[in-house]
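Good morning C.,

I know you're traveling, so I'll keep this short. The sequence:
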Amino acid sequence: LNALAAARSVGLVTLGFTGERGREPMSPLCDHLLVAPSSSTPRIQEAHEFAYHAICGMVESQLFAAAD
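The tokens, ready to paste straight into the viewer:
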């Protein structure tokens, strides 16, 4: 939470990944917040891992599209 607050204080765009319990404290500090709809750590991690891979795939397709 301190890192998010520091990032906001210098004008950075903030992105958070959390489960249900993190929604309330993180919401005011994040421009974009991905909340896995669970309080089970393994389920939250699975949702986040899927999201990480999807985001990486989109970034890679944009970065390497010019190389094709």
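Safe travels,
E.
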